[in-house]
Task: inverse folding
C-alpha cells in the first residue's frame, strides 16, 4: 500500500532529519551561545564561525532546492509541499525579525540550539525554552485578536 | 593574519543543509525550528507526530554527539533567569510574528531565494549585532 509505506517513511524521515539537524547544531557550535555571541560581537573579538555554518548549510541546501526540489510537483514521500504562499514584506515580518534579533542578541540562543540543548537540563536553558513557548502562545493570541490572519500554508508546488 | 577555516562549523552547517534538504525533498516541509515547535502548541491533524519525531531526533542528537567529541556547553554566558526569560519571550514572539528564525528564514528561506526571508534574515542579524554591541560595549 503506497500510502501506508509513504506515511511510515515520512515519519522516519522526520526522525532522521531531526537527528541530522541536532547533530548539525552540536558540531557547528550553534549550541554554544558564547560562540554565537562571539559571531555577533563584530566590533569585539570577532569569531566568524557562524558564517561558515550558514555558508555550509546554504552550499548544500540551495543547489538541492534549485536543481532538484523546485522541479518537482510533489515531495517524494508526501502528497504536497507545504510552502508559504506569502511573498509580502510587511510590518509583521520586519517587526517579528526585530523582536527575534533582540532576543537572540541578548542571550545568544535561538530555537534550534535551545531544543537541541534540552537534555543538558541547564536550568537557564529550560527557562529560556519555557519563555519562548510562552512568547509563541502570546504572539498567536495577539495575531488572532488583532486581525491580519497568518498567511495559510497551502499546497503549492515548489515551482510557484 | 592567519585564518583557519572552522571545519567543525562548516561541517555542522553541511549537516543542517542536508537535514533541511531531506525534510523538504521527501516530506515537503520546511526545517524551521520555530515553526516546527509552534506547530506543536496549536496541534492540528496530521501535524503533530512528525514534529514530535523531529524534536526527538534533535534532542537525541545531543546524546549522540558526545560520542563524536561534541558536548553541550557547561555554562551559558547569560544565565540570569530574568534575562533568559526576556530573551526567550522575545524569541518566541518574534519568530511567531515573523514566521521564522535562523533555520526557517536563514537557511530554508534564503536557500529558496525568498525575498521575505532575505529581508527577515538581514533584519534579525543586524538587530542581533546591534543588541550585542550595546550590551557588551555601551552598557
Result:
Amino acid at each position: 500500500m503506497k500510502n501506508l509505506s509513504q506515511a511510515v517513511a515520512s515519519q522516519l524521515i522526520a526522525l532522521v532529519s531531526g537527528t541530522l539537524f541536532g547533530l548539525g547544531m552540536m558540531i557547528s557550535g550553534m549550541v554554544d551561545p558564547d560562540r554565537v555571541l562571539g559571531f555577533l560581537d563584530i566590533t569585539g573579538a570577532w569569531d566568524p564561525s557562524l558564517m561558515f555554518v550558514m555558508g555550509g548549510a546554504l552550499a548544500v541546501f540551495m543547489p538541492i532546492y534549485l536543481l532538484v526540489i523546485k522541479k518537482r510537483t510533489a515531495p517524494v514521500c508526501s502528497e504536497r509541499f507545504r510552502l508559504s504562499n506569502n511573498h509580502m514584506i510587511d510590518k509583521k515580518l520586519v517587526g517579528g525579525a526585530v523582536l527575534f534579533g533582540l532576543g537572540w542578541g541578548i542571550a545568544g540562543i535561538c530555537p534550534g540550539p535551545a531544543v537541541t540543548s534540552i537534555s543538558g537540563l541547564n536550568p537557564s536553558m529550560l527557562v529560556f525554552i519555557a519563555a519562548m513557548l510562552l512568547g509563541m502562545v502570546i504572539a498567536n493570541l495577539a495575531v488572532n485578536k488583532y486581525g491580519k490572519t497568518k498567511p495559510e500554508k497551502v499546497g503549492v508546488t515548489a515551482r510557484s | 593574519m592567519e585564518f583557519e577555516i572552522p571545519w567543525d562549523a562548516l561541517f555542522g552547517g553541511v549537516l543542517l543543509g542536508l537535514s533541511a534538504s531531506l525534510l523538504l525533498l521527501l516530506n515537503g516541509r520546511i526545517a524551521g525550528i520555530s515553526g516546527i515547535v509552534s506547530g506543536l502548541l496549536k496541534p492540528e491533524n496530521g501535524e503533530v507526530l512528525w514534529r514530535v519525531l523531529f524534536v526527538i531526533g534533535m534532542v537525541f542528537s545531543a546524546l549522540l554527539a558526545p560520542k563524536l567529541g561534541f558536548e553541550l556547553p557547561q555554562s551559558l554566558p547569560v544565565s540570569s533567569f530574568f534575562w533568559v526569560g526576556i530573551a526567550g519571550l522575545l524569541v518566541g514572539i518574534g519568530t511567531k510574528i515573523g514566521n521564522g528564525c535562523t533555520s526557517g528564514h536563514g537557511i530554508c528561506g534564503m536557500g529558496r531565494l525568498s525575498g521575505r526571508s532575505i529581508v527577515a534574515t538581514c533584519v534579525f542579524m543586524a538587530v542581533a549585532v546591534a543588541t550585542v554591541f550595546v550590551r557588551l560595549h555601551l552598557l
Remarks:
- Residues 76-139 of chain B form one domain.
